[in-house]
Structure formats: structure tokens, C-alpha cells
């Protein structure tokens, strides 16, 4: 593993220039690199790199991050650094989220990572993460900065963000320490899919969400949105079934039933479900079921933007909205 400031770029890695902008998101489940190019005021996606690092699974009962998880993360960042080498540092933003907020030895990882990367890592607070997710959802929404109230949800590997806002302005935001990777480790460690596992996870999530549920319900909203992996997985299942990608409690209970019918993680087969989404679908689903019940959510639509889009929106020259064009 290379731990240094000099990056030897593989000849197969694309080269970029000062028209390119990069966002690096060191999440608790996956590490993401998003590279875009600004051409005549249009923003094009030119590359996406994603690795399932599952950093949160490396936390022990004392919130110490183990060396195996640290090594997985640093290996991924060495790859990211090769892509970032030709992009001006001022065009790069790098953030870390819940696991590195929680880990007591986070500095062990951050110091090593900062020697690899061209820009220092910004460790977001829960509040900052929630507000940035809302910004990403609102700036990419077809309704833009309309005055409708919206609820934005994001289930990450070690935290879940809930934000209510009006148009482009978040009015109430919180980050709860419940996530699909941490819940997988806590309630589905045996990889079994039975009623007890689901009930324990849903009950635990309900207990956490109920501490803030009433204040959110009082805010009210016209639309509920989300874009995390759990919600994307459910949308992909619905799309495969040629149904509208709108998530309801009926959809959640149906997927839960299908998962329990599989009995074991290794035997999960649901049409439209990608293999890489399987390990944390059950745990993420439990959190989403609890959110629906606690907040009286009737239906949820998929947002095209979240944390990375919010970061990119703040990084690019001033604009009122963000539309990403796939090349």
C-alpha cells in the first residue's frame, strides 16, 4: 500500500483538466468518486467509481475501527487518488460521514488517508450531512425550489438522515445513529432471515425514530423523497416488475415477505435486485419500515440527488439547479 504524497497514475486511468470537478464521499457502506465536467454551463458525468468498503462493519463494541477496515478504505483511496491526480485541488471536495464520526480511532484512518489524497478530508457533522443531502435532493428535483414542504430521507451505512424543508431551504434536520451496515452487524450477523431478526431491527429503529417523530410530523410535507441504496434497490425491483417506482408500506412488506421466504442471505433471489445490494437490504428495509410507521409516510419517491449532488452543487460555479448529463 502506498502511503505518500506522490501518486503514480496507471496509464489506463483517464486524465482530466480544470474543466473537471470531483466529489469523494467516504460513506459507511461504500466509498464513491464522482467526476463531472462543466462544458458551456452543462454538467456532464464523465466517471463514477464505487467500492463497497463497508467501513462501519469494522467498528467493534467500543467503536474502535479495526485494521482490516482501515486497510480496505486506504486501498480504495489509492485508486481514487490516481483519478484525482490531474484535477485541480480547488475543483475537488472530499468528505467523510458517520463511521468516522463515531470511530474513536478515526484519526488513524484520516491521517493516513490525507497523505494519499490531494485535498484534506472534511469530516461532516450529522447536521452538515443532513443539510447537504437536502441540498442535493432539492437542487436536482424537478420541482426545484418550489414552496412545497418536502421530507428527505437517507439511510446510510451507520446513520440515517431526516430533513424537512420548504423549497431549497431545510427547516429541520437530524442524523440518527442507525444504518444498514451497523444494523446488519447487530441484527442479521447470522445471515438468517426470520421474523425475530426483522422484529428486533424494526423495534430498535422505531425506538430511535420515535424520539424525534412528533416534531417532524408537526412540520408536515407534501412529498417524501429518498435516494439511498435501500430505496434505490426497492425502486429497481419495482421497475423490473414494470411498476411505478413509488415505495409504499405494501411494497416494503412484500419485499420483507420475499426475503423471509429465502431464509438465508446467501439464498436471496428477487427479480430486479442487484447482487451488490443483497447484504444490507434486509437491515435497510427494517429502518425504512420503521420510518414509514413512525412518520406516517404514505408513499416515497426516489430523488435523483443526495449527498454527492449537494456537494457538487456547492463546488460548481453559482447556479440555481443541477442537472447531471450522462455521457
Jot down its keywords.
327 residues, alpha/beta, six-stranded mixed beta sheet, 11 helices
Tell me the total number of β-strands. 12
Task: Point out poorly predicted stretches.
Answer: 1-6
Structural class: alpha/beta
The percent range for strand residues is 15-25%
Neighbour order of strands in the largest sheet = 5-4-1-2-3-12
How many angstroms does the end-to-end distance come to? 33 Å
Shape: globular
**Helical residues, percent:** 25-40%
How many whole angstroms does the radius of gyration measure? 19 Å
**Main sheet makeup:** 6 strands, mixed
Mean pLDDT: 93
Q: What's the tally of helices?
A: 11
Task: Give structural notes.
The chain has 327 residues and is an alpha/beta fold. 39% of the residues lie in helices and 21% in strands. It has eleven helices and twelve strands. The strands form two sheets. Strands 5-4-1-2-3-12 form a six-stranded mixed beta sheet, sandwiched between helices. A six-stranded mixed beta sheet has the order 8-7-6-9-11-10, with helices on both faces. The longest helix is centred in the N-terminal third of the chain and has 18 residues. The two termini are 33 Å apart. 45% of the residues are buried.
